[in-house]
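Bench notes, afternoon.
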Amino acid sequence: MNTIDERDFFDEKVIGKFSGFLAVSGNVLGLRRRIIDRDTIVDEKKGAYGDMLELGPDGIHTVDMRPLHVHVTRAGTPHRVPHSFGYWHINDVDEVYLAIPAPEGDPKGHFVVCQQRPVGKEGESFAWFCERCLTIIHEYRFDHGRLGLNEFWRAELAATVEYNATSRRCPECGHENPLGYSWNTVKDTPELAAARRYW
């Protein structure tokens, strides 16, 4: 198992290593076991995926996350999956998503997330925009190219804690925005679990 060609990434003994993200060659790869049929993608801990949201110059757009439909979130595009992670993710590199339905007789398929490994000054941000007027109210920058993937989850948690310690009140319209939450449900307090259910 020394080369990428010798690995069966969907093997049950291997896939657990990718439940967060893992650097493979020049890429960052995430593999998740999900209940996937023709119309839906379900995370047993978080519920139905629904659709990914992307924020562009003319507002929020819904991305249909259908099985066997490849989607590319372009570098610099704020995006989030409601109920999955409670912030907008802004990456300096493109991200590719693909949901692969389960083979016959298997209740779970595979959800694949892939991007190039950030290098040098490339990084990403965890950001919060006012849910009413879309004014950016907080941003936490992670220097991924320099610090590496091993620091990603620490940065995500630090960003969420930092944001939740603010008033979360929009400086433009005065709306008080909900708490942020991390991708990992193990980190949820009752308040964060309520925020996850809400948005």
